[in-house]
Every structure is written in structure tokens, then in C-alpha cells.
């Protein structure tokens, strides 16, 4: 498989063939995860450390499951009880962990670029589990896998991404990935929640759900990220749901077989109608959760292959 990356810090530096390599391998891990015995020895002998500086349910649990199912020794670092709370810098934390010789480091951090900085200070493979408003690459990859399995392809689709675009690293990573795979992308949001400079991504902008969802193949809703808001971005949650929350009436403007997505956690009755979120004929939200484990398994597998190959080359060079 073609996958050249040493780290997975974002989608921006992945070529389309590398994206397909992840999705193809993840498809195989979906099959493994549905078996009674889900274990593999792909990461046997390797150590995985999960560092989450922000709260997470789906991402942290799926990375932990992914590592354990592949046979890695997995450690979840409790940031709340770590020296970070005593004033230790991110670089000092990275150097400390590097001295323990981990092989895979999974990091979520509230500041954009923090994971990239950390990757420059360690010898292991680093996976970005979300950094500020920057990127969330494995979420975009699992979304792509979900779309491909539901639609039979990941090219030439009309995808509407709706909601809090401005604060969403999920939106940014999906914009980059879906653009690389030649899809038509529409962003639907109130002007206060639209990403600055988003025109550079070659997408279409809408502030009306009916127009933005017209004939869409995929409707991807986003969470209102109040923890990243420092002002009045919306009049009220009730008004926001009336204009931009997804319900059956708004979804009727999309294609009859359009799928509904949400990265979670969902605010029911704010971003999406609860009945629609649970509609097994339209919603693939639970499939996204399932694909998350498989995609993270594939990413760690591919990075571990590159890590082992690089170490093998260094041993040969040292011997020579």
C-alpha cells in the first residue's frame, strides 16, 4: 500500500492515493472488528501513549480500542494528574515521554499547531487526534470511509457541511479531504459561523439550508462548539435550530437517498432533530462511530510499518 507519512498531523499533506490506502486497509479492519475474536498482532511489541489535553469520548475510546485490538501496549496519560498541571511545558512533556521510547503517540490539544510542534521533538510516530481549530484528520478519514461504504464511492458527490464551520477542525479536515477526492462541497452556516478565507478551498457558501441542501448526496451536521466561542455568535439555540438545525423538512431538499452525518457529540434539538438522528434509513451516525475504530487501526498500522522500516534502515546504516 502507498502510504509515505511518518506522522499523521493533518489531511493537507496526504495524497489521494494515501487516503485510498487508509480507506482500503480500514475496510479490512471493519471485517476484523465484526468477528467474535477481534485481536491481531500487527502492533505487538509496540507502545502507544494517548495524551488528551481536551475531553473526549469517541476519539479516545476508539484509539485505545484500536491499539489494543492490534496488540499494542496502550497507556492513557491522565493529563489532569500530570506535570502539565504543575506548569510543565508541552516540549518538556514531549521530551520526558520521548525518553520512555514510545512508538505511537496520540495527541489531542486545544491549541492549533501544538501537535505539530510535539512531533518535531519525539522519535516516534505522532497522530493528531484534534488540535484547536486546525485539523482532525482521523475524523475526516472515518467520514470518508462511511461515505464510501454508503454511496459506493468517495468522488463526484455533492456534500453539504452545515453548522459551526468557524470553530470546527472537523469541517477543515473534511474540506481538504473531500476536495482532494474531487467532490462538490457546500458550506451552510450563518455568516457569524462561517470560516474566514474559506473561499480558498473552492467550495460554495450558503446561509440558507434549503438552497445549501438542494440535491445533496451527503448532509454533514456539525456541533455548536460553545467552548470555543467568546461572543454572541447566534441569537439563541431555539432560533439557530429553526434556521440551521436539520429536520425532515430541510432534509427533503436533499436527494431522496441522501445520508445524514454528525461527528458527535450531538446537541439534539439544536443541530439535529433527534428522530432524524436515529433514523436507520437516513442516518449513518452510528456507522461513523464504528468506522472510527477501523480507520484508527489502519492509520496506526500504516505508520507502524513506516516506523519499523525507518528503524531498520538506521540499523543497516549503523552496521555499515
Q: Overview of this structure, please?
A:
40% of the residues lie in helices and 14% in strands. The protein contains 11 helices and 9 strands. The strands form 2 sheets. It has a 5-stranded parallel sheet. It has helices at residues 16-33, 58-69, 90-98, 114-119, 137-151, 169-180, 209-213, 237-244, 248-251, 274-277, 285-319; strands at residues 47-52, 73-77, 104-109, 125-131, 158-162, 184-188, 204-206, 218-221, 259-261. The chain is α/β, with parallel strands linked by helices. The protein is globular, with a radius of gyration of 20 Å. Helix 1 crosses helix 5 (137-151), helix 1 (16-33) crosses helix 11 and helix 5 (137-151) packs across helix 11 (285-319).
Short description:
The chain has 320 residues and is an alpha/beta fold.
Write the layout of secondary structure elements.
Elements: H1 16-33, E1 47-52, H2 58-69, E2 73-77, H3 90-98, E3 104-109, H4 114-119, E4 125-131, H5 137-151, E5 158-162, H6 169-180, E6 184-188, E7 204-206, H7 209-213, E8 218-221, H8 237-244, H9 248-251, E9 259-261, H10 274-277, H11 285-319
Parallel strand pairs: 1-2, 1-3, 3-4, 5-6, 5-8, 6-7, 8-9
Helix pairs in contact: 1-5, 1-11, 2-11, 5-6, 5-11
